[in-house]
Amino acid sequence: MSAAADNASATRVEEILLAEPRGFCAGVDRAIEIVERAIAKFGAPIYVRHEIVHNTFVVNELKAKGAIFIEDLADVPPGATLVFSAHGVSKAVQDEARARGFEVFDATCPLVSKVHVEVAKLAREGYEFIMIGHKGHPEVEGTMGQLDHGIHLVEDVEDVARVQPSQTDRLAVVTQTTLSVDDAAEIAAAVRARFPKVREPKQQDICYATQNRQDAVKLLSPQVDLVIVVGSPTSSNSNRLRELAQRLGTEAYMVDSADEVLPQWFQGKSRVGLTAGASAPEVLVTQVIERIRALGAVSVRKLDGIEETVKFPLPKGLKIQGGPVPGHIS
């Protein structure tokens, strides 16, 4: 018997269950289209501050089309076209881009922009902020960078006990949009317990797509022996999906591509669950399905789930002849 046949018999995967929804959200799709349209309209190269979205495949595809990804605006030549990533940027970065005279297109997710607007509005009313999020994540840096003081980061319940705002009469809480819904709720409860008068958002900051993908994993995990999340290591929402499946008692792995799927994961597993973070394109899911089929999987079934119809408008100045960009990543 061949090694491939040995692998197939050892895995005995009978069915792949696909979470619904999975993969691209409206904010990611919009951000990628902004870069593609900028290249189509103005020609390569187009400069992008930070990875437009946290996915290796997407970034490499856009590099091939003519995008150059930078962290420091000093690396952008005068007169160039610059795109801000979906994660948002600080006021300092916006001001520097303006001072350097770049043609700027802002691909910040509108749901992140909503948080920025709320922070600016309440700051004018004298509020300080507690931000629930992960230190060093570009979205957190962008949101905290809307102010030059008065915004305090907490990463867990223990941080809440240590945070020292200068006053508590006007205190508001904001949240990174890609967190674990359950973790954020636990931290927010600790904030409320310590600061009973804290102001919370009218609608939670965690975005609809993050919530929906986590809810889909909650439905998927109990029905399978193994969960695979398609997503890059830098993707916050993809990491949260893997952690959630593990917390629910299901073995889980995250892969950046089908090449990372290992045969030994499937030994003794008859049903495999598959999902993808909000920045992972469906082509990668398809490739992972084919990889698992090659290891012996027989059938693929899509679970019922919420159908997302959200669509965000593009910035002005990016219309091109003929409508959609040819070869749009999806």
Largest sheet: 5 strands, parallel
Helix content: 25-40%
Quote the average pLDDT: 94
Tell me, briefly, the overall form. Answer: flat
Strands of the biggest beta sheet: in what spatial order? 10-9-11-1-12
CA radius of gyration: 21 Å
Q: What proportion of the residues form beta strands (DSSP E)?
A: 15-25%
Structural class: alpha/beta
Give the number of DSSP strands.
12
Oligomer classification: single chain
**Distinct helical segment count:** 11
**What's the SSE pattern?**
HEHEHEEHEHEHEHEHHEHEEHE
N- to C-terminal distance? 40 Å
Poorly predicted sequence stretches spanning 5 or more consecutive residues:
1-9
Put the structure in a nutshell:
The protein is an alpha/beta fold. Helix content is 38%, strand content 16%.
What descriptive keywords fit this protein?
11 helices; single chain; four-stranded parallel β-sheet; 16% strand; flat; 330 residues
Annotate the secondary structure layout.
Elements: H1 3-11, E1 15-18, H2 26-42, E2 46-49, H3 56-65, E3 67-70, E4 81-84, H4 91-100, E5 103-106, H5 110-124, E6 128-132, H6 138-144, E7 151-154, H7 157-162, E8 171-175, H8 181-194, H9 208-220, E9 226-230, H10 236-247, E10 251-255, E11 271-276, H11 282-294, E12 299-302
Parallel strand pairs: 1-11, 1-12, 2-3, 2-4, 4-5, 6-7, 6-8, 9-10, 9-11
Helix pairs in contact: 9-10
Q: Care to describe what's here?
A:
This protein is α/β, with parallel strands linked by helices. It is built from 11 helices and 12 strands. Strands 10-9-11-1-12 form a 5-stranded parallel β-sheet, with helices on both faces. Strands 3-2-4-5 form a 4-stranded parallel β-sheet. A 3-stranded parallel β-sheet has the order 7-6-8, sandwiched between helices. Strand 9, helix 10 and strand 10 form a beta-alpha-beta unit. The longest helix is centred in the first third of the chain and has 17 residues. The chain is flat, with a radius of gyration of 21 Å. It starts with a helix and ends in a 28-residue tail after the last strand.
